[in-house]
Amino acid sequence: MLKKALLFILFAILLVVGIVLFKTFQFTSVQTKVVALPAPAISEASLQHFQQAIGIKTVSYGNPALFDSTHFLAFRRFLETTYPNMHQRLTREVVAGYSLFYKWEGKNNSLKPVVLMAHQDVVPIEEATQSMWTSDPFSGVVRDNFIWGRGTTDDKINLVSICESVEKLVKESFQPERTVYLVFGHDEELGGKGAIAIAQLMKERNIIAEMVMDEGGIITNEKIPGMKEPVALLGTSEKGYLSIELVVEIPGGHSSMPEKETAIDILTKAIVTLRSHPFEPQFSDPMQGFIKSLGPEMPFVQKMAFANPWLFKGLIISTYDKSAPGSAMLRTTIAPTIINAGIKDNVIPTQAKATVNFRLLPGDLSADVIDRVKKIIGDDRVKIGRLGTTIAEASAVTPMDGYGYQKVEATIKRSYPNLLSSPFLMLGATDSRHFGEVSDNIVKFSPMIDPIGFHGIDERVSLESYRTALWFYEQLLKDLR
Predict the structure, then answer these.
(1) What is the pLDDT of residues 402-457, one digit of tens each?
(2) Could you please report the per-residue DSSP string of 87-119?
(3) What is the Cα–Cα distance from 469 to 161, expressed in whole angstroms?
(4) Residues facing 383 on adjacent strands
(5) In which domain, by residue range, is 157 found?
(6) Minimal CA–CA distance to 299: which of 9, 24, 38?
(7) What's the Cα-to-Cα distance from 453 to each of 7, 157, 158, 430, rounded to whole Å?
(8) 69-82 and 44-55 are packed helices; what angle lies between their axes, rounded to 10 degrees?
(9) Which of 288, 294, 343, 377 is the most buried if burial means most Cβ atoms within 10 Å?
(10) Does residue 463 lie within any of the structural domains?
(11) Which value, to the nearest 10 degrees, does the dihedral of the CA atoms of residues 425, 426, 431, 437 take?
(12) Does residue 237 form part of some domain?
């Protein structure tokens, strides 16, 4: 009997090993092979234009009272004077006060148009960090083969590269096959009311686009475990956005006579409880595409794991859970961001509030998240409600075999040598999330290489990135068939 049991176990092990090896060897590359064309050098004029764009302080502040329209009007004049042929050939509408909506008529009106997006605004410089910058944040200085300044990576590299490419092609009397719309929102960092207005305008005009392309994934040489080749990460979906407010109100009093529990005690306990119950990891559609695209290109052990997620799912999750970005790719995230309580050091507050931000994985709906939070906290003294109007479910997933993904993938591979590509789940928010009714093919991609200081100190992008972006957009516009 024991012998039979051992033989059965041995047979089961051999069967599992056989299945794992079979699936591994059947797990072959799906990468399209494209010959890259060398990108030309950056002209001195193009570089100066980028530097000038960085120098215009189109800052979006959280406090509306700090909005300075003069900078946005100056940026509009900068575009008009720097790209005169573009403004002569394309029609332009100003929407929601400062957002810009251009139309470049194509040759073939039977083809659906394409929308290229970027945003004018940048995040503020934190006052406490001013002295930590090694260059003036709005100088656009070139140093160590980088262009330095606020907005270099987010998102003026895309906006300027698009305009440079359009200006060059118009001067050459080029006309795209498809009509091209350019959407340059002015308040992406505040939720994108300008982009919402333009999307609504397109919907009212019954404009359905073949593709929408906005900022998003990047080319990276260093962020994919096990990869030696550079990878272009093409965003095919965007996580949802939800902020909730936790409010506790119980009688306060003098700090010399504290009760067993204060409002702060109850609130902080709720936050700790919530953080100690993370969402379960899931392989969303973009993650499955990531596995399919990059798994066959990895060293054998990683390839074997990706080829057999039914067996190695735990190993894959533990690997990606080691980093915050990797973990965020797998689950809805929970992040307490603001706590408000108290007015004086010897007064126990009556009220304590906290803001908690969630980035929703596709499939996790905001209403279900709120229900889950209530169950986890399990304390009726903690009032839970949605905060603000910036609430969005995760976006639909753009198919890998669709026009948008295929076109962007082929173009970036022509623009940058020895490049692999993969779908990618966007962790942050973009203006393109408002264009779900304009197109089913929304690709979120910025053709730059490993940018530094995104929303932080010493934000900068390499000269190589700018050269790649210029070349990418020129080739994309030439090939919109």
Answers:
(1) 999 999 999 999 999 999 999 999 998 899 999 999 999 999 999 999 999 999 99
(2) HHHSEEEEETTTEEEEEE--S-TTSPPEEEEEE
(3) 6
(4) 247
(5) 44-215+429-478
(6) 24
(7) 59, 14, 16, 18
(8) 170
(9) 294
(10) yes
(11) 10
(12) no
Amino acid at 112: K
Let me know if 359 is exposed, middle or buried by CB neighbors in 10 A (0-12, 13-18, 19+): buried
Query: Considering its fold, how many domains does the chain have in total?
Result: 1
Q: How far apart are the C-alpha atoms of 429 and 38, rounded to whole Å? A: 32
CB 362 within 8 A of CB 238: no
Would you list the DSSP string of 190-240? Answer: GT-HHHHHHHHHHHHTT---SEEEEEEEEEESSSSTT--S-EEEEEEEE-E
CA–centroid distance for 478 within its chain: 26
Residues designated catalytic: 121, 188
69: CATH: 3.40.630.10
Query: Tokens at residue 336, please?
Result: 């307490």
pTM for this model (two decimals): 0.92
Q: Are 39 and 415 in contact (CB under 8 A)?
A: yes
**Is residue 128 included in any domain, yes or no?**
yes
The 10s digit of each residue's pLDDT in 158-201 is 999 999 999 999 999 999 999 999 999 999 999 899 999 999 99
Contact 407, 442 (CB under 8 A): no
Q: What is the C-alpha separation between 186 and 378, in angstroms, rounded?
A: 42
What pLDDT band is residue 11 in, cutting at 50, 70 and 90?
confident
